[in-house]
Design goal:
540 residues, alpha/beta, Rossmann fold, 13-stranded mixed beta sheet, globular
Length: 540
C-alpha cells in the first residue's frame, strides 16, 4: 500500500519563489568589486532572476545547456544561480584562481555556451576567449558605462536583462534534472565534473538548515565567505532563501579590514569560510580592538581547523567555531561538529579534541571505512581505513563518465580520505590517501604533524609532505609559513610536534616560506610544494 500524499518535484525555482513571497523584505548585501555597496531584498532579487531567465530563453538557451560563471560572491551571481537552473539549464561555476589553460579546458569540456564574468577577471577572458569555441556570448557583470575593453564581443549584464519581462511561469520538470556543475580540484590528471540535480540540491539545503548543521533561521545574518565557484557556496545560497536569512556577500573584500567592517556594519551572526580567512579576521580584529559581538558562530571548512585558531576564537573573541567536512562530490556537507549529548560541556578542554575532528555524521550521509581489500572495518574509533560515503546528495559518477574508479560496485563513493569512525558518531580524518607518507614501511600522518606545528603561536600555516629519501624511500618534510613579523624557533616547533606525534614522524628538515600556495578553497597546494622540494633530501 502506498501513502496518499501529493507528488511534487523538488525545484530550485521553488526556493526563490518562496523567498520572494515569505521573506520578501530580508536583505542581500553585496560589497561590489569596486568596493561600493549594494543592497536589495529577496523580493527584488526574484524580479531580476525572472528577467534574466527570460533573457536567456530569448537568447536560445535550452534545457541542459551549460552556462559558466567566473565571478565573486555578489548579488548578480545569486541571480545567475537561480535563473539558469530554474529554466532547466546548468550553472557551471569556475574558479578564477586557476591558470588560463585550466579554465579554457573546463569551458571546452563543459561545452559552455555563455560565460558570465566579473569585470576584474577581464584579463582571464582576454587570454581564453580565442580558445573556447563553444561560447556564443561573453557577458560582463556590469553596466554599459563600465564595460571593459576585451578582445572579443562582450555584452554588459544590465543591458542583457533590462528589456526582459518580469513575468514567467516556471516550468515543472524531472527533479533529477541537472542544475549545477562544479569541477574537482584535479589532484590527479584533469579535473572531473560533479553534476548536481535539483533534487540533491534542495535536499542538501534542507539538511544544511538543521540545527546541528548550520543552525540558521530567518533572523540569521549569514556572511557567505566561501566562494560561490566552490560547490554552490556550501549550499548557503539555497538554504538562505529557504529559511529567509539575510545574506552578506563580500565580493573580493576578503581581507581582515573589509571583513571586520562588514561583520560589524551588517550585524553578522553566522559566517562561513576557510581557516585562512578567519585567521586574517582574527589578526585584524585583535590589532584594532574590534569587537565582533553579533557573531554567534563561525563555520569552518575547506581545510583542517588548527587548534590554536579554535582557541583564539572561542577563548579570546568568544565566538564558537564549528568545523565541517565535505567534498565537491558530497554537495559538499558530509558532517559537522555538534557535541555528543553525553559530553560534559562544562569542561572546555575535554571538548576541544572533538571539535577538531571532521564532525558527527548527519542524516542523509552514510559512511564506512574499508581496508586495502575493501573489507569493512569496525566503527570503534581505533580502526583506520579508506573512507567511503553514499547518500542522496553524493555524486554517483562524474560528468561525461570520467573517474569511474572512484565509485564502488555496491554504490559507494571512495573519498580518498583515511579515517576513523567513532561509536559516538564522529568521523576523524587521519590522512589523505594521496598524501599519506610511508617511510621505511611505516605510515606517517601528515595531518597530525601539520596540526601540531600550527599550534605554535608564531606559525600561521604548516604543510607536511613526503619527499624521496635514499635510505627510507620517503621522509616527511615540513614547510612553515610564519606569522607576519615572526621567525619561529625550529627547536620550539619540534617540541610542539613531539608533544602530539610519534618521534619517528618528526620531519628531518623544516623550512620557512613567506606564503604557502593555496587553492580556491584555502587548501594548501601540496603538489606545488612537492615539485619545489622533491630533491631536497637526495641532493644533500
Amino acid at each position: 500500500m502506498q501513502g496518499l500524499m501529493m507528488k511534487q518535484e523538488l525545484m530550485i525555482s521553488d526556493l526563490i519563489d518562496h523567498a520572494s513571497k515569505v521573506h520578501s523584505t530580508r536583505e542581500i548585501f553585496t560589497l561590489n568589486s569596486d568596493m561600493t555597496e549594494h543592497r536589495y531584498t529577496w523580493s527584488d532579487c526574484a524580479v531580476r532572476v525572472k528577467k534574466l531567465a527570460n533573457a536567456l530563453l530569448k537568447a536560445g538557451v535550452k534545457k541542459g545547456d551549460r552556462i559558466a560563471t567566473i565571478a565573486w560572491n555578489n548579488y548578480q551571481h545569486i541571480e545567475i544561480y537561480y535563473a539558469v537552473s530554474s529554466i532547466g539549464a546548468v550553472v557551471h561555476t569556475i574558479n578564477p584562481r586557476l591558470k588560463p589553460e585550466q579554465i579554457s579546458w573546463m569551458v571546452n569540456h563543459a561545452e559552455d555556451s555563455f560565460v558570465f564574468f566579473d569585470k576584474t577577471f577581464s584579463p582571464i577572458i582576454n587570454s581564453i576567449s580565442g580558445k573556447c569555441q563553444s561560447v556564443a556570448h561573453w557577458i560582463c557583470l556590469t553596466n554599459v558605462q563600465n564595460l571593459p575593453e576585451i578582445d572579443t564581443d562582450v555584452i554588459d549584464y544590465e543591458s542583457f536583462i533590462v528589456n526582459a519581462s518580469e513575468d514567467i511561469i516556471w516550468e515543472r520538470f524531472d527533479e533529477n534534472t541537472a542544475c549545477t556543475l562544479c569541477y574537482t580540484s584535479g589532484t590527479t590528471g584533469n579535473p572531473k565534473g560533479v553534476l548536481y540535480s535539483h533534487r540533491s540540491t534542495v535536499l542538501h539545503a534542507m539538511a544544511g538548515s538543521f540545527h546541528d548543521v548550520i543552525g540558521a533561521g530567518s533572523r540569521s545574518v549569514i556572511l557567505a565567505v566561501v566562494p560561490m565557484f566552490h560547490v554552490s557556496a556550501w549550499g548557503l545560497i539555497y538554504s538562505a532563501a529557504m529559511i529567509g536569512a539575510k545574506l552578506v556577500m563580500p565580493g573580493p573584500g576578503l581581507d581582515g579590514s573589509n571583513m571586520c567592517k562588514m561583520i560589524v556594519q551588517e550585524k553578522v551572526s553566522l559566517m562561513a569560510g576557510v581557516p585562512t580567512v578567519w585567521l586574517g579576521v582574527y589578526n585584524y580584529a585583535k590589532a584594532n580592538n574590534i569587537k565582533l559581538k553579533s557573531v554567534k558562530k563561525a563555520l569552518v571548512g575547506g581545510s583542517a581547523l588548527p587548534e590554536s585558531l579554535l582557541r583564539s576564537y572561542e577563548q579570546d573573541l568568544g565566538i564558537p567555531m564549528q568545523q565541517g567536512w565535505g567534498m565537491t562530490e558530497t554537495s559538499p556537507i558530509g558532517c559537522t561538529y555538534t557535541p555528543h549529548p553525553d559530553t560534559d560541556l562544562n569542561d572546555y578542554d575535554s571538548t576541544v579534541s572533538d571539535k577538531l575532528l571532521a564532525g558527527r555524521r548527519m542524516f542523509g550521509i552514510d559512511m564506512r571505512i574499508v581496508d586495502d581489500e575493501n573489507n569493512i572495518l569496525p566503527e570503534d574509533g581505533i580502526s583506520e581505513g579508506h573512507l567511503q560515503v553514499k547518500g542522496p546528495w553524493v555524486a554517483s559518477g562524474y560528468f561525461k563518465g570520467d573517474g569511474s574508479e572512484s565509485f564502488t560496485n555496491d554504490g559507494w563513493f571512495a573519498t580518498g580520505d583515511v579515517s576513523k569512525l567513532h561509536p559516538t558518531g564522529f568521523m576523524e580524518i587521519t590522512d589523505r590517501s594521496k598524501d599519506v607518507i610511508k617511510s621505511g614501511g611505516e605510515w606517517v600522518s601528515s595531518i597530525d604533524v601539520e596540526n601540531a606545528a600550527s599550534d605554535h603561536p608564531e606559525v600561521a600555516m604548516a604543510a607536511c609532505i613526503g619527499i624521496r629519501h635514499e635510505k627510507w624511500q620517503e621522509r616527511p618534510f615540513l614547510i612553515l609559513q610564519p606569522v607576519p613579523g615572526k621567525t619561529p624557533n625550529k627547536e620550539e616547533v619540534k617540541s610542539f610536534i613531539l608533544a602530539k606525534c610519534a618521534k619517528w614522524w618528526m620531519p628531518d628538515e623544516m623550512v620557512y616560506q613567506d606564503e604557502l600556495p593555496l587553492g580556491a578553497t584555502g587548501k594548501i597546494l601540496k603538489r606545488e610544494l612537492k615539485e619545489i622540494y622533491k630533491d631536497y633530501y637526495t641532493k644533500r
